[in-house]
Design goal:
The structure holds two protein chains of two kinds.
Chain A: E1 6-15, E2 18-28, E3 33-37, H1 44-52, E4 59-64, E5 67-68, E6 79-82, H2 94-99, H3 109-122, H4 138-150, E7 156-160, H5 168-185, E8 188-193, H6 196-202, E9 205-210, E10 213-218, H7 220-225, H8 230-235, E11 240-246, E12 256-260, E13 263-267, E14 269-270, E15 277-282, E16 288-291, E17 299-309, E18 313-320, E19 325-331, E20 344-348, E21 355-358, H9 364-377, H10 379-383
Parallel strand pairs in A: 3-8, 3-9, 6-7, 7-8, 14-21
Antiparallel strand pairs in A: 1-2, 1-4, 4-5, 9-10, 11-12, 11-15, 12-13, 15-21, 16-20, 17-18, 17-20, 18-19
Helix pairs in contact in A: 3-4
Chain B: H1 2-10, H2 33-56, H3 73-77, H4 87-120, H5 124-138, H6 141-155, H7 163-174, H8 176-189, H9 192-199, H10 204-233, H11 236-241, H12 250-257, H13 265-292, H14 300-309
Helix pairs in contact in B: 2-13, 4-5, 4-7, 4-8, 4-10, 8-10, 8-14, 9-10, 10-13, 12-13
Classes of the chains: A alpha+beta, B mainly alpha.
Chain lengths: 385, 311
């Protein structure tokens, strides 16, 4: 079980004339829970499949504990995969599925049963040995797939959207379990997902991918709170993005002064030395709403467009006088909300939460289109949290 | 403005304002008598001749047209001209089974190999082979039979007319069944199971043997049933490629005797036995196929395969 260091060096994969993975370099430490996060088609699964050995890289290296395995067939690599579709063999029992790979590990016959039982105990499926995969629920099948891979003690476990096919509640339970399991077995996990919540809750570090490249690599805290660009900010949770322009001389140390339409605001986070056109981002939970009459710094007048009750919080959609649409979150603490559709409000955008991001050269709407597709799928899961 | 919209929506039934685009006549959910009637006509039309042929195999007299009472003499009773006692008749039964078993045993493994090759190793060769597989559904059987006859008698003379040539011809004619049915299943299975197997340590061939073949079993079995049934029924190829009497299966014997020679209800009995073999194989195949795919009932893919297999 020793080892588990993965190094990708300038890894590139081209399918005909499409570049799926474009010159990425990552180093994953042994024992780390590392996620690749991005919308469908960003190259995350292709990257994983190259590490597993299902696709040969077009160029670049895949180093497993220092050995370049880029052209090795899958069965020679000490990595195992948990597939999104589980890929359990339907004609074998649960125990036979888990024991499938033991045959190639020169494990003595007497040992096999013990190890299979241990692996099933690890995923809390003891007593299910004789069942067939089709007699199990989706969550149970996923655990069998996990046991089948873990029993071989790979140095790296590759997980391709393993919770993708499960319902929101089960997914959240398994997220916690999977995280705990990884700490318990100490194997390097390389986890592919399009679900930002999954990546943020489980990972030690994660790479946000976009168009075959790494948009940002860091801890969940860094990536969520200090997104490197507008794309990352938008992809990681609901973020309010607005087009803005840095005021001439507004970037001379201290907070950056940015102009949104007719209003000039101070922004104290992000790229404070930017000039010209930029994007500014703010998380919904950082926005505060005040009565329309109340003045104050860094406030923009607006009007409530819609309220969505989410249980513990209420989501309020506000249209600013600049034309931008924002969403905010207000905790439901028992008091009735003084807002309804059409209520004029003063929207407070605290300077230390207002983040200046480099302009990617596309409009806010275009960024949203790109990241929205996958987030819509997860709307039910994010709204119930 | 708002109230006007509201009124339009709530206006009761709107007899005057709603323009009917042709009122439905009668009850749209009535039973489709015409379609049902036509279907039954078709079923009767296709079953009655067979039923009559089977019925007269049990005739007490020697007539194929006048019913003279029930008897099994044409199967076992008649010591001269029953299927059991007439050597040329029971020889034909044995030869038919012989050809069917041999053809199935040779065709299915080759066809499965073709299917896996065509689907899993994409190349110009596999594309060409795939075309040939479909091609054999299109060309007339007689053309193939005559071609094979010329080939065997003029060029490849080491293949003698008779069982060897018959089996060779039947294999060529039937190879598309396993190739196409197994390939359809390969497409629905996808590559994930093989990837999982190699990921767990199996080599490429190991993955095919331990995972792909078991997953293909229903399709392999279905195609074996079809090959067997189609061989039992085959006439054109075996007629061309058979030689002496012992190498003539039931279909050839019935054809050569139906206008004179050895005739009578014994031939009906022979045909009934042929029909019986085909039916038994089809029923066994259907039941076994259902059993083998019992875990996949919810998948539409198996329904698609069932319809391709014609069961």
């Amino acid at each position: 079980m020793a080892g588990g260091n993965v190094r990708l060096e300038s890894l590139t994969k081209q399918f005909d004339d499409v570049t799926a993975v474009d010159d990425i370099s990552i180093e994953i430490q042994a024992g780390e829970f590392f996620s690749l996060l991005g919308p469908s088609g960003c190259g995350k699964t292709t990257t994983l499949r190259m590490v597993a050995g299902f696709e040969p890289p077009t160029s670049g290296k895949i180093l497993l504990d220092g050995v370049d395995v880029g052209n090795w067939p899958p069965h020679r690599r000490n990595v195992n995969t948990v597939f999104q579709s589980y890929a359990l063999f339907p004609f074998l029992t649960v125990a036979e599925n888990v024991a499938f790979g033991m045959k190639y590990k020169s494990v003595p016959k007497s040992e096999i049963n013990t190890q299979v039982a241990e692996a099933l105990a690890l995923v809390q499926l003891s007593g299910y040995e004789k069942r067939r995969p089709n007699q199990l629920s989706g969550g149970q099948q996923q655990r069998v797939a996990l046991a089948r891979a873990l029993v071989l003690r790979p140095s790296v476990l590759l997980l391709d959207e393993p919770l993708g096919a499960l319902d929101a509640k089960l997914r959240r339970t398994l997220q916690v379990e999977l995280g705990a399991l990884q700490k318990q077995v100490g194997i390097t996990f390389m986890y592919v997902t399009h679900d930002q919540e999954e990546a943020l809750t489980m990972s030690d570090r994660l790479a946000v991918m976009n168009r075959g490249r790494i948009a940002q690599l860091g801890t969940p805290d860094e990536v969520y709170n200090e997104p490197a660009d507008a794309y990352v900010a938008d992809f990681l949770g609901v973020s309010n993005l607005m087009d803005a322009r840095v005021e001439p001389g507004g970037n001379g140390g201290g907070p950056c002064r940015v102009r949104l339409g007719d209003f000039v605001l101070e922004a104290a986070a992000g790229q404070l030395d930017a000039t010209g056109a930029v994007k500014v981002a703010i998380r919904p939970e950082r926005i505060n709403l005040h009565p329309y009459e109340a003045g104050g710094a860094n406030r923009v007048p607006g009007m409530v467009e819609r309220l969505v009750f989410l249980g513990s919080t209420t989501q309020i959609f506000v249209r600013l006088a600049t034309g931008s649409a924002l969403q905010t979150l207000v905790r439901n603490d028992g008091a009735a909300l003084p807002y309804s559709q059409g209520t004029p409000v003063s929207v407070g955008l605290p300077a230390d939460s207002l983040r200046v991001l480099p302009d990617p050269g596309v409009s806010v709407a275009e960024i949203r289109d790109k990241t929205l597709g996958d987030q819509l799928l997860d709307l039910t899961s994010t709204t119930s949290s | 403005m708002a109230s006007a919209v509201g009124e339009a929506v709530t206006a009761p039934s709107g007899r005057a304002t709603v323009a009917w685009r042709g009122r439905p006549r009668g009850n749209p959910w009535r039973r489709p008598w015409v379609m049902e009637g036509f279907t039954w006509l078709y079923i009767i039309w296709s079953i009655v001749p067979i039923a009559i042929a089977v019925l007269f195999s049990f005739n007490k007299g020697a007539s194929q047209a006048t019913w003279q009472g029930f008897s099994t003499k044409w199967y076992i009773g008649n010591s001269v001209n029953s299927v059991l006692h007439n050597p040329s008749l029971h020889q034909a039964v044995i030869q038919t089974l012989n050809l069917a078993v041999l053809t199935t045993l040779i065709t299915v493994p080759i066809g499965v190999g073709f299917a896996i090759g065509i689907d899993r190793w994409r190349s110009r060769t596999s594309t060409g082979l795939n075309f040939v597989m479909i091609f054999s559904f299109v060309i007339p059987e007689l053309l193939l039979a005559v071609g094979l006859f010329l080939l065997v008698t003029q060029a490849l003379t080491f293949i003698r007319l008779g069982t060897t040539a018959e089996v060779a011809g039947l294999v060529v004619w039937n190879i598309s069944w396993p190739a196409i049915i197994v390939r359809a299943r390969l497409v629905t299975i996808g590559r994930t199971y093989e990837e999982a197997a190699t990921d767990l340590g199996a080599s490429r061939l190991g993955a095919i043997r331990r995972v792909l073949i078991p997953l293909l079993m229903p399709a392999i079995f279905a195609s074996a049933v079809l090959v067997f049934a189609s061989t039992v029924d085959d006439f054109v190829i075996v007629e061309q490629l058979s030689s002496t009497a012992p190498t003539q299966p039931m279909s050839v014997l019935i054809y050569s005797n139906v206008h004179g020679g050895l005739s009578g209800p014994a031939l009906n009995a022979l045909a009934t036995i042929m029909l019986f073999f085909s039916l038994v194989v089809a029923v066994v195949g259907f039941v076994a196929y259902r059993w083998m795919t019992r875990g996949e009932r919810t998948k539409s893919s198996s329904a698609a395969l069932t319809s391709i297999a014609g069961m």
